[in-house]
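TEACHING EXERCISE
Course module: macromolecular assemblies
Task: Read the component lines below, then compare them to the predicted structure of the full complex.
Student: A.B.
Group: 4
Components provided:
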Amino acid sequence: MIEEPYRWVEAIANRREYIEAQLAPGSPIAALGYRDGILFLTVSQTRQKIFEVYDRIAMGAIGHPGDIERLRMAAIELASTEGFTRAAADVSLRRLVHYSLSPVMKNAFEQVYGAPYLARMLFAEVGERPEEDLFLRVEYDGEIATNGATYAQARQDFAALSGTQQSREQMEALLATEHAQDANLETVVNSALDAWSIGHMTLQTDDAKEPPERAAVRKHREEQLTNAGIEAALLERDASRAIRYRSLSDKELRPLIRD
Amino acid sequence: MERSLVAFDQNFSGAVGDFPVLLRRKGLLAPAAENPVPQAGTPQKIWQPTEATTILAFKFSGGVLVAGDRRATAGNTVVYDRADKVLEIDRHSIMAIAGVPATAWEMARVLEHSFQYFRRTQLQEMSVDGKVRALSKLLRDNFGFVMQGVGVVVPIFATYDSHPKPEARLYFYDAMGAQFEATDYAATGSGSPAVRGILFYENNWGAKPLQELGEDEAVSIALRALDTAAQSDTATGGVDRGGKIYPLIKIVSRDGITTLPESKIAAVFKETVA
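Instructor-supplied answer key:
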């Protein structure tokens, strides 16, 4: 019955609905480009969500741990073999995502008899200057969103990943006003925590049209931070070292939080 | 349709974390060489590979000092007088090479990527024993080429171990891949007999044992040892006084690797060796 085009479209729509429901509770991740690099940040109770991919590339993901792991391994393999045969400078996030990951995810999504990837990923590649930072969001169906300038959109130096589109858009709206790319680490840690909080709050309210009040966001942040840990990592802009990824501990980050 | 070098692979090997296996599966690394069957008659050596000699390493008060002369030769010909035989593999590990640079540099590259690959996929640093074994495996895989008269590599591996107790660790290998942990010093390459003689003498009857030397004293002994080796071994460069080319010296300590600047080596050389 799937052979009929209409049935196929219906099957795909059902599958999309199913995956969206599975991803919906995913705790948000924010990535912000700043003066000295790129910060990835989330607040999590359970498993690790931010990972090193290659010298200048990191990723954050929400979804099924098995699928995240397979995609993470694939990304590391591809980047490592490319870096080995050519040079680290030739490893390109754009190519990794556009050419290798996206087609495979699209394929898995559209093969209605096979299992799709239950994962949504956010990649970032640190550049020599903040203007060269690249952020790419990859959806379970292979769809790619970038921070690059298009006719419809100005270039952004941040990206957000969340369980629902509404939550992500609230985070992006907040970062568009609050975040500046010449900020220092302390400022971006606070902006990222605000973005996480607003995204997390939106996940819990079904049909909020208006963004939550600022005071409510702060209160939510405080509550969440009492029983969950901050998970964060940096891609440092410092060119004197080849490997730019460095994870930040909760203990390092707590003193930077401002009220 | 042209297939790219980088194509998505469903058979993920990441769970194993073995980078050479991944490279071989993708056809990016030569398979382990077969051990050749011995044949009757005298083998004719028609081609001489470029070789690099002499390297040494010893523990001193500031960690492990690793030094190498700069000469690369092919038979009687000096191919290069600024060869780099002391290679950084990661933030705390150095591999120094004696033997064929083409093979050795490739090994160093595989090793460097192996350690990073392991850390990224397994989300933890490879243990020192794992790193030492990884190099041993590469040497073993290369042994077929050694038997064919090309590609012999005899490295030294120096690293800093933080578990269980923080200490510098020093290993040397034979061409077949056996690893030997050195308590005080190691030297390989064609000039190594002279170097070993000097290090043994210094360690037992010198002003103080090698492990108690300060940095300048250690550098001085390394320079003297390499210069001595160059006296009798044409394949060792020693210190090139005319061209002002000095051996390459790196130090592994708790804080990582330091490459001694040439000006510092030149100053020690001028004061205590020349």
